Amino acid sequence: MSSIRHALNVTREGDFAQWYQAVIAEADMAEESGVRGCMVIKPWGYGIWERMQKLLDIEIKATGHENCYFPLFIPLSFFEKEAEHVEGFAKEMAVVTHHRLIPNGKGGLMPDPEAKLEEPLVVRPTSETVIGAAMSRWVQSWRDLPLLTNQWANVVRWEMRTRMFLRTSEFLWQEGHTAHADKTDAMEETMRMLEVYRAFAEGPLAMPVIAGEKPENERFPGADATYSIEAMMQDGKALQAGTSHYLGTSFAEAAGIRYQDREGQQATCHTTSWGVSTRMIGGVIMVHGDDDGLRVPPQIAPHQIVILPMLRENEGDDALLAYCEEVRRALAGQSALGEPIRVHLDKRAGKATGKRWAWVKKGVPLILEIGGRDAEASQVSVLRRDRLWRDDGKPDFRGEPRETFIAGAAAELEAIQAGLFTEAKSRRDRQIVRGVDSFEALSAMFSESEKTPGWAQVAWSAPSGAALDAVVAKLKSLKLTIRNTPLGAPAPSGMCMFTGQPATQTIYVARTY
Amino acid sequence: MSSIRHALNVTREGDFAQWYQAVIAEADMAEESGVRGCMVIKPWGYGIWERMQKLLDIEIKATGHENCYFPLFIPLSFFEKEAEHVEGFAKEMAVVTHHRLIPNGKGGLMPDPEAKLEEPLVVRPTSETVIGAAMSRWVQSWRDLPLLTNQWANVVRWEMRTRMFLRTSEFLWQEGHTAHADKTDAMEETMRMLEVYRAFAEGPLAMPVIAGEKPENERFPGADATYSIEAMMQDGKALQAGTSHYLGTSFAEAAGIRYQDREGQQATCHTTSWGVSTRMIGGVIMVHGDDDGLRVPPQIAPHQIVILPMLRENEGDDALLAYCEEVRRALAGQSALGEPIRVHLDKRAGKATGKRWAWVKKGVPLILEIGGRDAEASQVSVLRRDRLWRDDGKPDFRGEPRETFIAGAAAELEAIQAGLFTEAKSRRDRQIVRGVDSFEALSAMFSESEKTPGWAQVAWSAPSGAALDAVVAKLKSLKLTIRNTPLGAPAPSGMCMFTGQPATQTIYVARTY
To answer: How far apart are CA B110 and CA A196, in angstroms?
Structure first.
């Protein structure tokens, strides 16, 4: 295997952080914008986001939610209403203070001191407060409940250290916001959307996740309970890939979301919110990428199959292109994974091998290279992105009659989708260390090497308040965090390694992005 | 006809501006947000926007463009580079000056003086400058051209007087940005996208438009030429519903978008930009709405058919709902206007007549009311939104065997789509006054009554500079503006009413939104 010359010049093993940046650059997904903390999402990265949006939006609508659009700007006074939320969020945010620019007398521009806003506006870091204000107008009676809304939007959280897709000052996301008559209904919604996220991650993204409840210290500011899906990256670290919050009545009280119940009494709503973002793209890179670049699960691949004609810039090219177009049309007429196959014929000038490696690095599931002789023999030459190399270090092309390939294309895409999930899940499960029953064992696990060995599954007594703070501090000394308490895990036996009390819950402990 | 009791309590004839607000409120499309100049787009309004996005995005991609995402924030220095653009835009904009909030000592929050940005950031009013900076990185050689990008995004232009959908501080739009090797190619692109907009307006929106070039004084700041589509509202005013700009080389020079041509020489790109926004929704309201509320063209209707079971809250309801569900499924299995029919079964509790009028006001093209006797007789009762009233002032329901309705549903939706266009076009054409050949005639036309009689078609000599300013000032005295010079209009004869020179072009003169 040592004879393989990989498409990237940095490996996951060599330097995972650099490898991550290399995948993004070589797959042409995004780049720094020149605007502090903001990235430009390029067509291939944005195309993956469009696929995610499309598939998740279907699920959001199927569960009864309607899309709306709320203002980008939130007046400070809205933000000040919910105390814990302010504490948690009112730190690093973009603040609009002026509404006009004037010449600065030096050939440039400056904010007009005459156009200072009476009340500064915050660029939304999340929209609970402004949506809460709308809900207080919309909800009058129990008949208006549940109120199920969602928006797709950009949000801004001023970040000091940014990393593309994972942590940028501006990012794209969806945020669901719902109001309910009581806790039971709101908790059902919270768990329903957590399950939508789990199924979305493990389905279209082929990314295994652990769904569970975050510990108290990791709750969304102002929430009564926060749930997450957590994915393991190939470097053993965790990525929180989506969250669903039961907000209790605190936001509803702050915004005045009240209703008349069936008995004619005024009552306060229970609300939820839940969101996933472009951060998921970072997760897909770090779960599925390899030393040749990105591998995109077929369900979210903008192109599932790319056809590369081996053009020779001679009179044979027309016939070759006509043949490739026939293959393209036959594939596009079929369905895989519940949708028409997305196939792209790359007619650009340039060497076929150069184009091949560009598509490999972008992670297209299937690449067809077709030359004049293939066309004459009604053949195609197939390269599977998930099985790129032969043992002799050459790309593992397989020649196949065109009709055979076309007939099997849907099944092959489905197999790749399933295979990526299985591969990621086996790796994840291998890297979860169970039965770590003392802090010494935990320390040993995470100090043996510079690499992160994976996650530790630990039993604890679920302390709160100061006792929890002590646990968090202790874990911090090992650069560890509590990820979540997985749903449905059996109650553990034994003692809590932190408190010495009887253990009541299982948690995952890990380093994190 | 006087016996008709319309669903709105204000008519177009009575007070058009109030009627417009009433349609938006009664159709539950949008509302004031409590944040200055920003609206909340509610599910029905946002659903129409999603339909517009979906259909236009297909055309944008079919013409070779790829979607990207660029930063919300633009550093002042980017903005200062293109002088004319600064002049035109650097007036009313939201300016971010701080990146942190701290307690203000009075229980509230304030921008942290320690967290003042060295360089203020403008919330994008449009993205030529920040996309130009990216293009300067992406374009190296003639092989990289044309570079065809688009983004769907929110933008902010601080507005003093706002009107929902038509003029809000924040709005949603798409903005296409392209770079080309030469003027010919850039002009072809400019005109191609103008035509895409024309076809989109006249197709899915059923909104007749005049495509043409804006006069020099109405050009986009920094552009060499600006083209628009102009629609006539039912009050006779014009709405600019989309623009396409040939930017020449000025933005490319400011941003350094240069390439090596086939001969190895460095050359400057020619760029274009083009956009349409949520403003189009305002156009749809004012072109198609009537005294009973909105009428949505079937192609952009979130629901094309709504089924209303006449529930009685008794044991017959189950059978009725089962029948309605059968009708729904049969309709959803068919296609109209190139897509599966979008049909909604409204099972909510509440009186059928109340629900009927809510859907009428939302403008659903076809409403089916189905009662127990209809179900027994395999019938449906159909109300067409575009032919709502009988001469006796009653809603014009028609009873029909269910199979007859289902078999004809696609054709009926297509007829409604076509009918709305024809109706709007006849009205528009009636309200264009041709042969207005003196300023006195123009004055007479627009001062005869308080109502705007429509547009005047006028021949002029296309003056520029100070001579054009004089024309603009003269028109302003009548509250008139020049809309555009229609494409392909034959050269006029006679003299220019403004300059006394021989006329060279036809223009439309109108009051405007």
So the answer is: 38
Is CATH 3.30.930.10 correct for B16-288? Answer: yes
Which is nearest to B168 in space by CA: B84, B75, B98, B92? Answer: B92
pLDDT digits (tens, 9 = 90+) for A292-332: 999 999 999 999 999 999 999 888 899 999 999 999 999 99
- Supply the mean pLDDT for chain B: 95
Which residues 227-246 of B have a C-beta within 8 angstroms of A?
none
Looking at the DSSP assignment, which residues form a beta bridge with residue B266?
B260
Residues 67-126 of B with CB under 8 A from A: 67-80, 86, 90-102, 107-111, 120-123
Interchain pair A76, B31: CB under 8 A: no
Residues of A in contact with B90 (CB under 8 A): 101-102, 109
Architecture of domain B303-418: 3-Layer(aba) Sandwich (3.40)
Quick one: fold of A16-96+128-288?
BirA Bifunctional Protein; domain 2 (3.30.930)
Closest chain B residue by Cα to residue A147: B43
Task: Considering only residues B383 and B315, tell me which one the structure prediction assigns the higher pLDDT.
Answer: B383
* A92 interaction partners in chain B (CB closer than 8 Å): 99-100
Would you call A72 and B156 a contact, using CB atoms and an 8 Å cutoff? yes
Write down the domain spans for chain A. 16-96+128-288, 298-428, 432-510
Residue A449 pLDDT greater than 70, yes or no: no
Are B95 and A97 within 8 A, CB to CB? yes
pTM for the structure as a whole: 0.97
Give the distance from residue B213's alpha carbon to the nearest chain A alpha carbon, in angstroms.
30
Q: Give A-chain residues touching B98 at CB under 8 angstroms.
A: 94-95, 97, 120
* CATH architecture assignment, domain A298-428: 3-Layer(aba) Sandwich (3.40)
- Indicate the range of A21-30, A102-111, A279-288 predicted with least confidence: A102-111
DSSP state letter for A490:
P
Angle at A504 between CA A498 and CA A507, to 5 degrees: 65
Instruction: Kindly indicate whether the domain formed by A432-510 is annotated with CATH number 2.40.290.10.
Output: no
Kindly determine whether residue B69 and residue A40, on different chains, have CB atoms separated by under 8 Å: yes
Whether residues A92 and B99 touch (CB distance < 8 A) is answered with yes
Q: Categorize the per-residue pLDDT at B18 as very low, low, confident or very high, splitting at 50, 70 and 90.
A: very high
Measured distance CA(A115)–CA(A94) in Å, rounded: 18
End-to-end CA distance of chain A: 32
Find the closest chain B residue to A75 by CA distance. B35
DSSP B80: T
Q: For residue range A379-404, what is the model confidence (pLDDT) as tens digits? A: 999 999 999 999 999 999 999 999 99
